[in-house]
Design goal:
189 residues; six-stranded antiparallel sheet
């Protein structure tokens, strides 16, 4: 497995080793020891799977209680995946990182707890899978506005058409109104 550091502190892009032949392919998408060596050593408690159509934008989400680390990947289609560092004590606080994840490249992105996460679908549809280090806690979920000018994410918007965003995500907070995380809030029990 190849491990690439990103500009976001603690976030990594992972390229699993793919074994393939005329029959298809095989790869490990999780191995506690190997991923632990890459700095992903928290237990996962929940797996999620979403399917979205072209032009859908989901996010940017995070939880203030039970912050989730996420190991994300695409199993069908293609997305532009984005994380924003919302950790006040981080050297990369306020910065964003984006990468195109596809079913063909098999790449995974580790999103540390305390980072907002979202994605934009580039293909006709996309299946998006992610492992979480804590349970979904809807009462503490916060959405950072996908188009916040302070963060300034350079989304690869298709055909110049605004993305399709849920009503909840349309109500996303601007960076200046966002509650940031401290190291104390991110400590695991």
């Amino acid at each position: 497995m190849e491990i690439e550091a990103t500009p976001i502190a603690g976030a990594t892009l992972l390229r699993p080793t793919v074994h393939g032949d005329a029959r298809g392919f095989f790869l490990e998408t999780w191995h506690a020891d190997r991923y632990g060596e890459a700095g992903i050593d928290q237990p996962f408690v929940q797996d999620n799977h979403s399917r979205s159509s072209r032009g859908i934008l989901r996010g940017l989400h995070f939880q203030t209680t039970q912050p989730q680390g996420k190991l994300v990947r695409v199993t069908s289609g293609e997305v532009f995946d984005v994380i924003v560092d919302c950790r006040a004590d981080s050297a990369s606080c306020g910065q964003w990182y984006g990468v195109t994840l596809t079913a063909e490249n098999h790449e995974q992105l580790w999103v540390p707890p305390g980072c907002a996460h979202g994605f934009y679908v580039l293909s006709n549809s996309a299946d998006f899978l992610y492992k979480c280090t804590d349970y979904y806690h809807p009462d503490s979920e916060i959405t950072l506005a996908w188009d916040d000018p302070t963060v300034g994410i350079d989304w690869p918007i298709l055909d110049g058409t605004l993305p399709q965003v849920s009503e909840k995500d349309c109500q996303g907070l601007r960076w200046d109104a966002l509650p940031l995380f401290s190291n104390e809030a991110l400590r695991q029990p």
